[in-house]
Amino acid sequence: MKKYSAAAVVAARDGLTAAQSGLLSCHACGLLSAAPKQNVDARQAVCCPRCGSTLHARKPDSIKRTWAFLMAAYILYIPANMLPIMVTSELFSLPQSDTIMSGIVYLWLNGNWPLALLVFFASIVIPLLKLVALTVLAISVQRKSNWQPHQRAALYRFVDLVGRWSMLDIYVATLLVALVQFKSFALVQIGPGAVAFGAVVVLTLLAANSFDPRYIWDFVKNDKQRAR
Amino acid sequence: MTQTASGVQAGQATGAYIACPECDLLQQEVILPPRGVALCQRCKSELYHHTPHGLDRTLAFAMCGLVLYLLANFFPLLDLVLNGTDNSSTLYGAVLALYHEDLLPLAALVFFTTILVPGAEIMCYLYLLLPLRFGRRAPGFKTVFRLIQTMHPWGMIEVLMLGVLVAVVKLAAVATVTPGIALWAAAALMIMFSALAQSFNPRDVWAFVEPQGPEQA
Q: pLDDT digit string (tens) for A146-202?
């Protein structure tokens, strides 16, 4: 028997969670260790005996942090969509300033609809989906809901998977600014909307990161849902 | 080849327990067949997978990744000819262009996600696994191991590649765009990163380093 699993085996029962068995699982290396005996305050650091990560039964202040990042993202979402993200001069005959949406419309009207769709998904659908999905998840956890845990877990996994792709527009703008220059005078300039949009993307990534999906399952009482 | 952690047919239970990182359910670990994946019984998220010679593969991918990373950073990404002027830019040049436009936050964001994190991730893998290959544990082993896990979600080479593609299509309408060496290197680097993620198993590292479990403090 492995030395480090001894404590875990004593306390572990099938169908229970680690938290219910007084165990902490390490988020970096996966090792289970016994939680300290006394009712230790959640802020006190307990370290993984194997890799040294700080152990928590649940991510610290998970829901509060998720809300904080979400609120900030919601606020910045407005300038991100209202202000121009790109200002092009001369090159396309007329100086033109584009918000995210008008840039997409421009692409669509010029017959480049595959690209328009791609940018629409990366810059409009994914950020909005993340904001709404994380809000729903945070509310459901706060209300200790046991509604559709499988669907909510899948939703979280999806948000986690696609979230990074909304950085697309930032990279496109970066490359355009760097390349479309005339005697080191940039013909394409980045508008203030891009900074706000970048902040929205980073904030939603942080919000998804601070949400702890284990809360989804903590309030599931039905045994059928518990272990199928 | 997929099976649940409690799978009776292929996997034999080891007696050790593992908690699902996404739903916290305790379940017994099973021995996986080559290329097998263990899924949580309840929420079906991946618990761990088995890659034959996972650590050696990771090391090989990381070495290859280092070469590609250098190519991707020191050669021009795209070359653009517009009204007779010829512009080419490296990835770092693009970050500098943002910086000169007084967009420090964006420049920092692009630098962090496409240059700093990917490079640091490759170096961390090499730092962990190269000495391990010769039976040594590098100083600060645990810290670097944790650093890899923390950094991982912030490397976004694959999103950058799609961004390059979109930029090329947009610019092709008004100018002549030629992909540079760095573009091909970055595309290969993107594949290398997904291979790295697939072959690297934190469990393998610890099974190799401490087959008997951690020293009790």
A: 888 999 999 999 999 999 999 999 999 999 888 887 665 667 888 899 999 999 999
Min distance A213 CA to chain B CA atoms (Å) = 5
ipTM of the assembly?
Answer: 0.88
- A154: in domain: yes
Q: Which of A62, A100, A171 has the most B C-beta neighbours within 10 Å, making it the best mutation to test the interface with B?
A: A171
Question: Under 8 Å CB-to-CB from A5, ≥6 apart: which residues?
Answer: A32, B15, B16, B17, B213
3-state SS class at B38 = strand
Residues A92 and A39 reside in one and the same domain = no
Helix H or strand E segment including B101: none
Q: Is A132 on the interface with B (CB under 8 A)?
A: no
Question: Comparing A155 with B210, which gets the higher pLDDT?
Answer: A155
Q: Which domain holds residue A9?
A: 3-57
My answer on whether A161 and A120 are in the same domain is yes
